[in-house]
Amino acid sequence: MLERNTFGRLALVAISISLMLAVSRELAFGHGVLIGVAPASGVALCAVLLMRGAAVPAIILGYALGDILGGLSLGATMTNTALHGLAAYGGANVMRKAARRRRPGTKTGEWQVFVCGAWFFALLVAAGSVAAQAIGLIATDFHSLPLAGFVFLSELLGVLTVSAVLLNYREFPKVRDNLRPTLGISVLGIALLCALEFLLHLPPTTISPSHLAILLSIPLALWIAMLPRSLDGAAVTFLVMHAALFLLVAHSEPVVGSDFIVTILFLNVLTMACQFVHSVNLDRLAALVENKAHKSELEKRVEERTARLLAMTEHAVAADEAKSKFIATISHELRTPLNGVIGMASVVLASNRLDPETRQNVNMIHGSGLHLLSIINRILDFSRLGEGIPKDADTIFDIEDLMTEVVNEARFAPEAAGLDIRGNVEPGVERRRLGYRQGVRQVLTNLVGNAIKFTDEGTVKVRISEIERNLIRVEVCDTGPGIPANMTHKIFRPFEQGGSAVTRRYGGTGLGLAICKEIVSRMKGRIGVESEPGAGSRFWFEVPLSSVPQGDGSAKDVADELQNSI
């Protein structure tokens, strides 16, 4: 059994169709079995779209009641009701199949699918009318082809205008909340109808009444096409077009006349073009809204991620500062007692009253203390790399004196016993230089210390040259075991050494070369190594150090002078 709501809808469909047919014939839109204006066709198609096959009996009943009230014969009534019921069912199915195949996601696509169904509906009714006249079920004043054209145009106009209203009924709350666009197009429509009524009462001119109706409809169609919604525009279009057709019928000739047929032809074209432009405009507005929403969403995401990144950055900076502070504090706390241990061990070793075994033990304490102090100093240096080079770090210094200082210190290292450690500056290299002296010394000390550490016998040489103006190259060569080719690119990474065997034999943290690389990089230089297993190693670094002429002058004055000369 049908539910009460469904039964009510079906009854409404039947009553609406019968009343529309009766009103159309009362307004002189009917000519026998033919209807020049067919809004009932739009109701029939929409009913099947919304209620599927259950609406077909209501459509047949509505057409039967309307045709009987219009005085049609039994054969004409049966033919008309059957044709419209079948056309409504077929047109709705064509629209559903087209929608499944095309999957329209835009108003333009939906409109194209709807036009396919409307055309199928009108073509089926037109073809059925021609066939019914051929077998004598209906009789008209038209031959087959004119009959098909008249039926097709009148049915298509009814479907296009009425369906556009019924299928957009969900927009009613929007129309109710904002009536200004509705009132605007209503006033324009009334003004155009008044103008048409006035022109139709004028003496006949070269412009036919149908042309007047079409010309006056164009401004309304253009306005409706650009509206941001569909319901009120479709409703005003339906009312104004049918009112214009009524004025034409009242002032010229019947619906089967050529003027009326030309008018509905142009109104069909105008309606389809207007609705197509309107659909494109709605899609454009929807795309703008979607793009705006998408842009807002992206901006919101960017803001959220930026806030998270800032929070993470602040957290990382705070953690890094805490780490540096912790390392500096621990290093200080460790070095203070460690320096006391090393100092006391040195004092004990200076005594002549130690037996050999005790001296050996104290030597071990002294050496272990020095090794531990070296490790602590390396860790502290590594932790300070994030601070960068101070702006006022550049000083004037003698590069040969710096090299001599490092070489002389290296000769007193425990591992330097038996090694020939020497250094030289190539002729022609100016000794006075402006640059980060502390950085150069630290790198050179690390490289010389490594060379001594890994060289059991032979020589360690330091060589300084100027490969181009103000670009100094420092080389540290040794006769140690050398480095495998697959390790030369790894040893400059933090905590990397020449392999686990090297670590076990020589110890160390693997931070020295990483510190050297970072310092050289910050001085806008470069560092590298050339080595072969069994043939020793050549570590080198190149840094820009400006030459300073002999004479008085502070480092700042010289730096400013060099900067101004660049």
Q: Give the biggest beta sheet.
A: 5 strands, mixed
**Which class best fits the helix and strand makeup?**
alpha+beta
Got a strand count? 10
Radius of gyration from the alpha-carbon trace, in angstroms? 50 Å
**Overall domain count:** 2
Estimate the helix proportion, in percent.
55-70%
Q: What is the strand arrangement across the widest sheet?
A: 4-6-7-9-8
- The helix tally amounts to 17
Uncertain segments of ≥5 residues (pLDDT<50)? 554-559, 561-566
Question: How confident overall, as mean pLDDT?
Answer: 82
Shape: rod-shaped
Main traits of this protein?
single chain; 566 residues; alpha+beta; Heat Shock Protein 90; 2 domains; five-stranded mixed β-sheet; three-stranded antiparallel β-sheet; rod-shaped
Can you describe what's shown?
By secondary structure, the protein is an alpha+beta fold. The protein has two domains: 4-288, no CATH class; 389-565, 2-Layer Sandwich (Heat Shock Protein 90), CATH 3.30.565. The chain contains 17 helices and ten strands. A five-stranded mixed sheet has the order 4-6-7-9-8. A three-stranded antiparallel sheet has the order 3-5-10. Strands 1-2 form a two-stranded antiparallel ribbon. The two termini are 98 Å apart.
Layout: helices, strands, pairs:
Blueprint: H1 4-26, E1 30-31, E2 34-35, H2 39-51, H3 56-69, H4 74-102, H5 107-134, H6 144-166, H7 172-177, H8 180-200, H9 209-225, H10 231-251, H11 258-349, H12 356-383, E3 395-398, H13 399-411, E4 419-425, E5 432-435, H14 437-454, E6 458-468, E7 471-478, H15 500-506, H16 512-522, E8 526-531, E9 537-544, E10 546-547, H17 555-565
Parallel strand pairs: 4-6
Antiparallel strand pairs: 1-2, 3-5, 5-10, 6-7, 7-9, 8-9
Helix pairs in contact: 1-2, 1-3, 2-4, 2-6, 3-4, 4-5, 5-6, 5-11, 6-10, 6-11, 8-9, 8-10, 9-10, 9-11, 10-11, 11-12, 13-14, 14-16
